[in-house]
Amino acid sequence: HNRHGVAFMEKPPHIPGPDDVNNTVRSGGRGSLTAKHNHDTIHDGVRIRRLTPLECFRLQGFPDEHFHNARAAGVSDRQLYKQAGNAVTVTVAKAIAEKIKEALNKYAKR
After folding, report:
1. What is the DSSP annotation of the chain?
2. How far apart are CA 85 and CA 76, in angstroms?
């Protein structure tokens, strides 16, 4: 621990680093920061921490302005996490739609 009470530890193998691929970010059911089922944490080289609501919005492809507008409207962190977690990333939806279109075109040519 440092003088501020922050525990410094080595990165457990199940906690991603800032450049690693992470699992689905969840909005609820949080366990301890080191629980293997806790996929909303990141190891930033110094400590293990939860992703911020802004980071979750960014991961979903939203511009920062959307987060700041929601925050200014008084939306709580809990609701911001839920909004980000329930969002469908536009680029993912587009990629799925393109694959469906390819499959339909392939099927129509039979």
Report:
1. --TT-PPP-PPPTTS--TTS---PPPSS----TT-TT--SEEE-SS-EEEPPHHHHHHHTT--HHHHHHHHHTT--HHHHHHHHHH---HHHHHHHHHHHHHHHHHHHT-
2. 14
Averages of pLDDT over runs of 10 residues in the chain (110 residues) are 51 59 55 48 65 89 92 96 88 90 89
Q: Please give the angle made by the CA atoms of 10, 19 and 22, to the nearest 5 degrees.
A: 85
Q: Cα(69)–Cα(37) distance, rounded to whole angstroms? A: 31
Exposed/middle/buried for residue 47 (C-beta within 10 Å: 0-12, 13-18, 19+): middle
* Residues 110, 106: Cα–Cα separation, whole Å: 7
The Cα 84–Cα 27 span in angstroms is 8
Cα(95)–Cα(25) distance, integer angstroms = 20
